User: Fold this.
Amino acid sequence: MNGSIQIDSHTHKVCEDTEHIYSDQWWSQQHLVINALDNVQARLYTDQRCVKNLVPLLESGTMGTKGHVQVIVPHLTANYGATRDPPEAGIPFCTLKSFPSQIEHCIQWGRDKFNTLFNLRPQELNQLLEEAANPLLFEEKINKKHPRKKELEHSMKLIRNRPSALKDCVRLAREKFEALFVFNVEYLLTRFPADAKNTDGTLFWALPRRIPHVVSFDPSDSAHASFIMHATALFAKAYGVPISEGDLDPNLLSQMAFDIVVPKPNWKDKHIETNEQASDNKKPGDADSDVLTPEERTQLTRDLAFAAHSVASTKVRAFPEDFEKDDDRNHHIDFITAASNIRAAQYGIQPTDRLKTKKVAGRIIPAMATSTAAITGLAALEVLKILRRTSLDTYKNAWMNLALPSVTFSEPQGCPVTKISDSVSISLWDRWDIQEGDLALGQLLNFFKKKYHVVVTAIIQNTTLIYTDALPDYKKRIPQKISKLLNVEDGVTAYPVTMSFESLDGKEVVGPPVVLHLCKK
Assistant:
């Protein structure tokens, strides 16, 4: 190791929420970025920022015995987002929903329930409350969607079930326990009893299908108590209910939950998917009972608008939980562990521990020191080439699998170039920095026509339309200075804008990002 190396460690997550810390200025100051990330979304984000700020990127990673290094150099190679790995094979929807046969199925099911309960539902509530700020407009907007009865009732339930105290969170946790582990299983066994048969006469409950059994809530069962405690904590976090660590006593919470009586739902017309090819987006035909008369729709819509506005006026909001596997205090893995183990026990599947749940839910493949060392060495070789600014044919992408063993090298894919006129070609790395000073709009339009041989059809700053040739009123702006049209800030002279272009013969062309500099250089 270089003894004089200086390391400035950061603990902030690099994402859209921290762009006030990791701004374009910060990115543009980096000589090189080396990735060692564990998900595609983070890789794509880093790739996007490096492309925008013209920073070389070494994308690398390992997965067990496998590993890769991809070299991304401005103006030489394609970026990471130009190619995608094939999607992973998923678990059939009906298997997750009703017919698990492995602990992995139960864990993924628990992961999906976490996302629905503590991320999607709070997001839906926030959207409802935001739209309900004006009840009349809200009612009008709902009517335009022509919602069905179940949609309106679902929205009303989001409003009415919003917890405001610890006891409400416990109630929601117990209700969810009954729905997931009691009512759903009871209905499944009603539709498909133990002696049910397929159309060909074979038994429905034949392996790999496992017949479940209904459980009763038991406050002395550690998995049941854990489910209630972690679900209560997550409901409190997601809906901004103030609680303390002392409130999260599993024995006390499970006893509170035991005293709650949960009414049995009406399962009429509930659909159970048995087709392994079906997805969770596939909906069965709506029953006639879900069709509303105009009078019923009007009344339900008004009730929803009034209820939503009443809550929205208090300025409350929800706080969706984004799944994070590496924080042991956020209750995420603990909730999924409890939920998946209860479900596993119902289906006669061997429960597992928290570590296995974390590996499956977080899609963690244990790291191997040999794979890491090999990829680190391969990446270090490419770092030296980038710092020496060598030519494209010297760089090497690498793919490795030590289990075979196999190491494959290839020259990085060249940067694709798009021709937008006879004399102008661009790539994803190009930027048009217009340093002609504070031109009149008409002069700017002529500049693009003469230099790049394109016609500007629209100019947008953030979400503000500055100019379009489609509306006559905007043509009145042609004599005005750019500084009068843009949203100008004190001390700022460079403004990124989005422009639409056409070729001189009227065909639409896609140009690169544009920055207008009000001070001429």
In short: The chain has a mean pLDDT of 88. The chain is about 40% helix and 10% strand.
